[in-house]
UniProtKB/TrEMBL annotation:
The chain crosses the membrane at residues 17-35, 55-74, 79-96, 124-144. Keywords: Membrane, Transmembrane, Transmembrane helix. The lineage of its organism: Bacteria, Pseudomonadati, Bacteroidota, Flavobacteriia, Flavobacteriales. It comes from the Bacteria. It comes from Myroides pelagicus. This is Uncharacterized protein.
């Protein structure tokens, strides 16, 4: 039989995961919208101009992979190593999302190789990923302090 304390810990764990997911989706959406803003007036592969809708769907899709990796990352101790691996995972996912948008709106209409697409995506993404990562670090540290203090 579960005690009230163990039920409370499970509930806090679920809330913590939801907050991580929500933070990732919001920052991912803003980061991709900023990084790929030069491409918003170009049609996508399905001939629509719904840039923000495409970015939101991409953020939600990538968040599935984030949640799976998050379950592994949160088990890492100490916190500094967890933070480094977490940030690498997030940067990789954000870059991949930007690469998908670039491929859909720019490279799909041209003759870019995968290497050239990655190079141009990196060029578009460098500052937005750096800024998003700084915000991510700040929010992650606040959340960590909040959840560790409540233990």
């Amino acid at each position: 039989m579960e005690t009230k304390d163990s039920i409370s810990r499970k509930r806090k764990g679920r809330i913590r995961l939801f907050l991580y997911w929500l933070m990732f989706v919001l920052i991912s959406f803003v980061q991709t919208a900023i990084a790929m803003s030069d491409l918003k007036d170009r049609p996508s592969g399905d001939l629509t101009f719904h840039f923000y809708q495409d970015v939101l769907i991409g953020s939600l899709s990538i968040s599935v992979f984030y949640m799976l990796l998050l379950l592994l990352v949160l088990r890492i101790r100490p916190f500094v190593l967890q933070l480094v691996i977490h940030s690498l995972v997030v940067m990789g996912l954000w870059f991949y999302e930007n690469l998908l948008v670039f491929g859909d709106r720019e490279a799909g209409w041209s003759t870019y190789s995968l290497g050239a697409s990655a190079y141009h995506t990196w060029d578009y993404s460098l500052w937005s990923i750096s800024l998003a990562l700084a915000v991510f670090f700040l929010v992650l540290k606040v959340m960590y302090n909040k959840f560790e203090r409540d233990k």
